[in-house]
Amino acid sequence: MPNHPPSPTISRAEWRFVALIVLLVLFITSLPYLFAWLTTPAHKQFMGIMLDVPDHGQYFSWMRELTDAHLAANKLTPEPNEPVFFNLLWWGLGRLGRLFGVGYAGMFQVLRVVATALFLPLVYLFCAWFLPERGRRQTAFLLICFSAGLGWMIIAYRNLFMSEELPLQWLLDVYIAEGNTFLSILGYPHFIGAALYIAVFYLILRGEETKQYRYAVYGGLLALFLGWQHAYDLVLVYGILGAYALLVWLRDKKFPWFLAQNLIILGLISWWPALYSVILTSLDPLWEEVLAQFANAGVYTPPPLHLLIFFGPLLWLAIVGLFRLRPHHLSQLDNKTLFLVAWFVANFFLLYIPTDFQVHMLNGWQVPMGILATLALYEWLTPGLAAAAYRLRPSFSPHWVQKAVPLLFLLVVIPTNLYLWLWRFDELRRYDYPYYLYQDELAAFAWLEQNANSDDVVLSSLTTGQYIPALTGTHAFLAHWAQTLDFFGKSEMVEQFFTTQTDPTQRQAILQQYSVDYILYGPTEQILGNYDPASAPYLTLVFASETTQIYQVVGIPDQ
Prior knowledge:
- This protein has 27 helices and 7 strands.
- By secondary structure, the chain is mainly alpha-helical.
């Protein structure tokens, strides 16, 4: 069976094109951040986050804890716990931030730039590997960079015909970031960094082509490095490469010993982060409960029919492209094509592994999808439309159709990301929680950072609590839907605490049970109820500004 080397020839002009797109994407996705930073009112501060504040508050907390230690405690819950958590990405960002004097929000931007600058050229390398023609490579690359599904139609329908909010499943068809390159670069750059796992595929296939084991070692080291940042992606690495090995075996009717040996080398080098994650969430009761609470988010891979909406025409054409490769005739497929089939098909089944983190398996699937869609676009859709145009009007130039159809298709798959980008400006121009905090609240955080101990517990609303661990180094009573143990129970306790109707003994019991040391009382806490902490003899005012106070818990009477 003829093989095609996985090292394509890419001209300097093509790399200049890639560099231009990288700069363009970074410029476009930076504009909402620049808008927020430059227009924030003087009495507030933009916190450097514009999507999914709870999770990013969690990452910033890890960054803080791992700046001075190799293991971090979970500060997003009040329960005492030992520092046993490690993540290489936030460990590195925390230490680099301290070295260069850059804060958490600043290092988040550094991550956006570096991850984008690494991932997009890697994507183009894969496009060039599978698509020898320059125009097709660039089309696939642009589709992978900018395409999204039909979410804009869902939003339009809601705005035109609905008075209530959309069901969660339909919202997920719009806002899931995994599998959406542009949205990930905009607000979830760690997903783009994690998607660098596809480089492992290149190394393993390069080793198979050259019959050199060193590429398996390189791939294993890279998978090890990436696994310490996002262990879930090892499921994709092992699953997709395992499916490819199985297809090679079926095609050749003999066991692929060299490929199997390379996969064994890869696994032996890289499996340690997965082992650590299993041990952490199995033997440590706190982290076992954290993992169990992943279901609180209610975010799972969309059902197959919803995938057709989430990815839209890109997935439709990719399915056409898959069948045009005739995957049922394995004997006719070379290694390159066989791997593309394995990648696309195996990744689909991995989307539905029975875990609460299955949605992460979408991350990177847009790459084979974009390549297969491009094959169908140029070899099926464009010729078909050109032939139809000729039948309708023989004088019509098929060359014009061949030029116009890829451009029109790109315009069709962009609108959802355009909506998501414009939506950020609409959200940020309100200068409101959770993307902005009052200067008074930040002053209160600064007081806690200077005066509280690292094992102290601060009770506040969820809105401010999600920032407390990262900005003060203390434990938050309520901060995150998974990291805060008994999240819903503690959410109810916070509401009860700030409500005047709550019995004082119940309020005291909450403080005693969780060894609360401080009460943060600012605008978001006042919204929860009219309770005045100054009325409690066991609460002492230790910080006060115009809108925010901190009360220290002292001398609670025995129940």
